[in-house]
Amino acid sequence: MSRIELPDLQTMSPEQACVCEEAKAGPRGKIPAPMIAWLQNAELARRAQHLGALLRFQTSLSPRLSELAILVCARHWTSHHEWTAHKKIALDAGLDPGIISTIASHGSPVFREADEELVYQLSSELLKTGKLSQASYEKGTNGLGTRAMVELVAILGYYCLVSLTLNAFELGLPDNTAAELADSAYTLPKHPAESTADCGLV
Predict the structure, then answer these.
(1) Residues near 137 by Cβ (< 8 Å), separated by ≥ 6?
(2) Collapsing DSSP states into helix, strand and coil, what is residue 34?
(3) Alpha carbons 80 and 163: distance in angstroms, whole number
(4) Rounded to an integer, what distance in angstroms lies between the CA atom of residue 149 and that of residue 32?
(5) Backbone angles phi, psi at 11, to 5 degrees
(6) Predicted confidence (pLDDT) per residue in 121-139, tens digit
(7) Region 61-65: what's the mean pLDDT?
(8) Which stretches of the chain are assigned E, i.e. beta strand?
(9) Are 180 and 105 within 8 A, CB to CB?
(10) 126-129: long-range pairs with CB below 8 Å, 24+
(11) Letter string b/e over residues 51-77, b meaning 16 or more CB atoms within 10 A of that residue's CB
(12) What does the DSSP assignment read for 33-66?
């Protein structure tokens, strides 16, 4: 069971109710799962869900590339609900199922598309080290452009917030436990520093 629940409409403050209506009227058409926790601070919920909508639907990155980055982030944090939700979106956006399953198993995907490989490499390096080498930065700006690089970093940062929120409050569990992640939804994942020997992702 989730550690925190969406308040009943009757018990919501006017600010909370307004934010929920804004979310449902937006491009998602519903209240995103992490907002259940963010509603404890209605203004946090408002600003975070608006930022999320922008990063999901209004960047220069194609859905195929942004969803790839989100899945890399979900795998990094072993965020089951985020993985489950965005795996379906990524498949609908045309991302190869084999790439998705390889990321889930901590493998090294083989890409047919150069832009996918670049997004994967940049996302993996940034999540693993917290920065980008000069060579990676130049490769990214040359391949994606400066605007898309900024947007990619913002997507990763936002979905780190989403992943940590979902994990801390166990939102969407156990219903959205992703079996392919192979980690229990109720145990702490290995610290990234302990995982690098057998994993090219985190």
Answers:
(1) 149
(2) coil
(3) 9
(4) 25
(5) -100, -5
(6) 999 999 999 999 999 999 9
(7) 98
(8) none
(9) yes
(10) 126/153, 126/156, 127/72, 127/73, 127/76, 127/156, 127/160, 127/201, 127/202, 128/76, 128/192, 128/196, 128/201, 128/202
(11) ebbebbeebebebbbbbbbbbbbbbbb
(12) TTHHHHTTSHHHHHHHHHHHHHHHHSSSS-HHHH
Phi/psi of residue 151, nearest 5 degrees: -65, -40
Question: Phi, psi at residue 35, to the nearest 5°?
Answer: -65, -20
Give the amino acid at 155.
I
Written as six digits, the tokens of 23 are 């979310």
Total residues found in the chain within this entry: 202
Token reading at 87:
């795996």
pLDDT, position 25: 95
pLDDT confidence of residue 183: 62
Distance, CA of 168 to CA of 192 (rounded, Å): 17
Q: Please state, in angstroms and rounded to a whole number, the distance separating the CA atoms of residues 84 and 136.
A: 29
**Helix, strand, coil % over all residues of the chain, rounded to 5:** 60, 0, 40
Give the C-alpha separation, 35 to 42, whole Å: 9
Kindly state the tokens that stand for 168. Answer: 């801390």
Residues 6+ apart with CB under 8 A from 146: none
Alpha-carbon dihedral 202, 77, 174, 71, rounded to 10 degrees: -70
Task: Please classify residue 160 by burial: count the beta carbons closer than 10 Å to its beta carbon, then call 0-12 exposed, 13-18 middle and 19+ buried.
Answer: middle
Residue 185: pLDDT above 70?
A: no
